[in-house]
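[Q] Does anyone have a clean structure-token version of this?
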Amino acid sequence: MKVRRILLTGAGGIGGTNFIRSLHLAEDQNNERLFIVGTDYNIYYIEFPDTNLKFRTPKHSDPKFIPTLIKFIKENKLEFLHPHPSSEAKVVSENRKQLKSLGVMLYLPRHEDIMPDKLYIHQKLNSSGVPLPKTMLVKSIQDVDDAFMELNSPLWIRSIKGAGGRLSLKVNSSKEAKLWIKLNVMQGRAKLNEFILQEYLPRKDLAFDSLWFRGKLITSYARERLEYPFKHISLSGITGTPSVAKILHNDRVNSVGISAVKALNPKPHGFYSVDLKEDVNGNPKVTEVDGKWHTTAPLWGYAFAKAYNKTSYNIAYSYLTLGYGENLVEELPKTDLFPEEHYLIRQMDSGIILKSKENFWRIA
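[A] Here you go.
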């Protein structure tokens, strides 16, 4: 039996743990064997991954990060590299020539598609006519007053860098926005010119996840985020990854999501995620597009594949199969991979639940 030999970075994070869980399920359902080496920078989280071997690495910004990965690849005869966190994926993508020279397979977007700043995203998508919230870059404090005059109130302020709703807040006046900027600049979290003010989008909080191969859409799905963990201790009510979300079948969301990815890269290759919010009239507008995995993307695949005993739902396994240059056993739907009206419910230390009107599964 052929044993695939895989290196997974960020294996101790939530996304990495979900990815590994998906691969182990695929082993069971397809009678396969995988040899997985997991790495993580965090001295505590490295204890989480269920891998054959696990090692700590330097931080992604350390010049020793790539040489350390190369060392693990050579010592363990690894064939495929999947860097899960965006920060590590970007560095790996930037060094892809060096890694591919070792014979290692990668299935990654180009590095400029990973963790692009919000202003870059806005410029790329706006030029392609993708629906976006009205946006103004803060270059000076005066720009805050101008934004409220032009875009009205309330507005959404956020950093142009980072994920998980970094430094985002609903602000009702220019005074509130200025105080928020001043506080974060004073405490060293951002510079003045790293903020944008955007039209406030009050309705549904949506996500679109998609898998692409050399410009061809392989499959995708959309969902609505309903609850965030510990939202009561976050000023914005957003804490990055949802604790409750449900699958959504919506042609408009699918169309906008696909357009957003293709505006970022006309020939996408790898996994791309899109964040959207609905405006007051229910029109979805893109707030972010990125060549990364949403934290729960592999978990959705794991949950559905386990609940319905259907490997084609396992999107992490589909990704691995394509990354190895192999054909999928069956062609996947281009959109709406998962059946609608299924809820994924999760919270710290309480496990994971998949629920529909008719069924209930305790997934993990």
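[Q] Thanks! Anything notable?
[A] The first helix runs from residue 14 to 30.
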